[in-house]
Amino acid sequence: DTAVSQTPKYLVTQMGNDKSIKCEQNLGHDTMYWYKQDSKKFLKIMFSYNNKELIINETVPNRFSPKSPDKAHLNLHINSLELGDSAVYFCASRLGGGKGYTFGSGTRLTVV
Amino acid sequence: GENVEQHPSTLSVQEGDSAVIKCTYSDSASNYFPWYKQELGKGPQLIIDIRSNVGEKKDQRIAVTLNKTAKHFSLHITETQPEDSAVYFCAASTADTGNQFYFGTGTSLTVIP
Predict the structure, then answer these.
(1) What's B33's DSSP letter?
(2) Which residue out of A27, A30, A43 would a mutagenesis test of the B interface target, given it has the greatest number of B Cβ atoms within 10 Å?
(3) Which residues 71-110 of A have a C-beta within 8 angstroms of B?
(4) Mean per-residue pLDDT for A5-26?
(5) B53 pLDDT band (50/70/90 cuts)?
(6) In the prediction, which pLDDT does A98 show?
(7) Closest Cα partner for B80 from B40, B37, B34?
(8) Which of A35, A46, A76, B49 lies 20 to 30 A from A57 at CA?
(9) Cβ contact (<8 Å) for A43 and B98?
(10) How far is A105 from chain B (nearest CA, A)?
(11) Percent of chain A with pLDDT over 90
């Protein structure tokens, strides 16, 4: 009964490849997010969707494209992977009304 | 936009001592301040939060204080235990639906047995 689940947990791939990370939440939350955590642990927001609508799109290369087929899912597709994309990517969800995020366990992406 | 600063970046304490982590924020519209604990290999977990209409909140060994005038808030952990060792993040947000959290840069806490 995992609340926010991401797959895969680990992803090792070569430069130039295209990969996707999937996220699903079973909490009934309205808003979902993608965060990137670099090697210094800094959490940087990438995207946010509210009821399948994109509401936050930070300065992220357009090689990154989020897709939300329904409000329980927010997937992240990355084209032409680069070495600098190596990081841990976290999906999170939030219920409106000011409660905190629930994070997934992260996807460690390593580009070689 | 909001800017959240967090100090210290690393903190080591002896088991049983207290630990304090401090954050400041810049946007007076922020009214919700959660704290997260991230253990190795896991996602951040919400441990306590406070809203701007409250000055202090406590949950067992963890407490958070908020000074709206000075725009700073702090996490206090008493009687620390080795399992408290983790990276702690503060964040600031408005409570509006969809609004993002602005995270601090994290504090790596080590509790020495």
Answers:
(1) E
(2) A43
(3) 90, 92, 96-106
(4) 97
(5) confident
(6) 62
(7) B37
(8) B49
(9) no
(10) 4
(11) 69
Question: In chain B, which residue's Cα lies nearest the Cα of A95?
Answer: B97
Place of tokens 């979902």: A32
- Name residue A21's beta-bridge partners: A76
pLDDT of residue A30: 86
Q: Rounded to 5, what percent of chain A is helix, strand, coil?
A: 5, 55, 40
Whether residue A103 and residue B44 make contact (CB cut-off 8 A), yes or no, is yes
Which pair of tokens denotes residue A87?
Answer: 């990081």
pLDDT in tens, A19-70: 999 999 999 988 899 999 999 899 999 988 888 888 877 778 999 999 999 9
Q: How far is CA A61 from the centre of its chain?
A: 14
- Cβ distance of A33 and B106 shorter than 8 Å: no
